[in-house]
Each structure stands twice: as C-alpha cells, then as structure tokens.
C-alpha cells in the first residue's frame, strides 16, 4: 500500500479517496515540505497493478492499512491525513494506533459511509467557466459535475491528478468495495474516549458528495480539533481553495510540532 516516501523529518501518511490514487493529495506537497515533514503516500487496492486477493471491503482495507503502517513504521510516531474515503480510513488508523499518533487530519472526509444516509447541501455551482471546462479536456464532463467554482487552474489539476487515476482504477474491485463500504464500527464509537491530539477537519460548504454536517456532529470527540467549513468549496476544495487549505494544513503541522 505504501506508494512512495519523500523528504525527511516527522512522517505524514497521506491516504487518497475512492477510485483515485495518491496524486489527488499531492497539491499539499509544498505545505508539507515547507513545514519540514516527510510525505508517505498510500495507494489503495484498486490502483494498478491490483494484487491477487486484494481486500474487497472497507473494513478489510482498513485492517490491511493498519498492518502495513505497523510494519513500515515499527514504533516510530507519525501523523495521518485522509481525503474523502481516505478520511474514513485515517480515522480508523488514528484510533487503532492512537499511542503512535501525532495527529489526524481529514480533507472532505467521509464521516457517514453511504450517500443515502449523509446530510448533504443542495447542488450549487457558484461560477461556471467555459474556458475551465475546455482546460479539463476529455475530463470536462466529470469536472463540471463536481466543481463548485470552475477555474482553469482547478480544471487542469483535475485533468492531471484525478481523471487519469479514475480511468485506470479497477472497476470490478471498486464495485465489490462499494457494496461493503462501511467500517464494522465507526472509530469514534469503537474508541469513545475523546481524541486529544491535534486534529484538522476541512470541509467544502458546497460539497454535495460527503457534505460537512456529519463531520461537525463529531466535534466534541476531537478535543483539539480545528473544524473548517470553506465557502466556495466542493468535494475538491483543496483545488478550489488551495491557499486556505494549505494554511490550515500548515497550522495543523505546527500544532503537532509544538
């Protein structure tokens, strides 16, 4: 599952979302590097080459990720950041390995597994941009479906970092995982004692995929949590509001360093 490791210093594990690969979180590279942390990227099982017998449920993936990180880090402390589906996995890891954790971050994290059960805002496009859609190339339709604030910069990032991984992902394996998408028990219920390490939870105010209300409902559990709901941000809020997301990540890293 470890895709690559870059830099030096304290370790930050970055876990991507459903149907994509580690590239979706690489826009955070500059902030992480500037803070003096090293980046440890995870690729989840649907990313080619797909291993025979790859875990085919969220719980199996979560258990495999814990085993992988234990083997990789030994007793070394580390922090973890999860994007979307990866946020669910990151929460599981952070609670299962709490004694080894430096902190936890979620970026548009999935706090409720199934879409039908989520509290979601209405679909809203704040800015349409024909030039941006052209910049997305063959991914224009998918980009337009998810973007809240269309811009050439976010469209290019979508076309370069998200669309190729989505095209390459193993669809059969993803379908099996989607049919068993929930953890057996939510991490905050399995480990109800408050999570008192520095945490960060970033949401898009217009994110119609995972929303923000379900994450905010757990704010009492995260005693040292920053909860940020960013206007003009959808499910790719780090592409639409990059400077603000980078600032929040920088602050979270500094809180752990302190």
Note the run of SSEs as H and E. Answer: EEHEHEHEHHHHHEHEHH
| Helix/strand/pairing category | alpha/beta
Cross-sheet strand order for the largest sheet: 1-3-2-4-5-6-7
Distance between the termini: 30 Å
Q: Shape from CA axes?
A: globular
Describe the sheet with the most strands. 7 strands, mixed
Number of extended strands: 7
Q: What percent of residues are in strands?
A: 15-25%
**Gyration radius from CA atoms, angstroms:** 17 Å
Helix content: 25-40%
- Pick out the low-confidence regions: none
Give the overall average pLDDT.
97
By DSSP (H or I, 4+ residues per run), the number of helices equals 11
Short description:
The chain is of the alpha/beta class. 39% of the residues lie in helices and 16% in strands. It is built from eleven helices and seven strands.
Explained architecture:
- There is one protein chain.
- The chain is α/β, with parallel strands linked by helices.
- 39% of the residues lie in helices and 16% in strands.
- It is built from 11 helices and 7 strands.
- A 7-stranded mixed sheet has the order 1-3-2-4-5-6-7, sandwiched between helices.
- Helix 2 (58-73) crosses helix 3 (85-96).
- The longest helix has 17 residues, at 152-168.
- The chain is globular and about 50 Å long.
- The two termini are 30 Å apart.
- The model has no long low-confidence stretch (mean pLDDT 97).
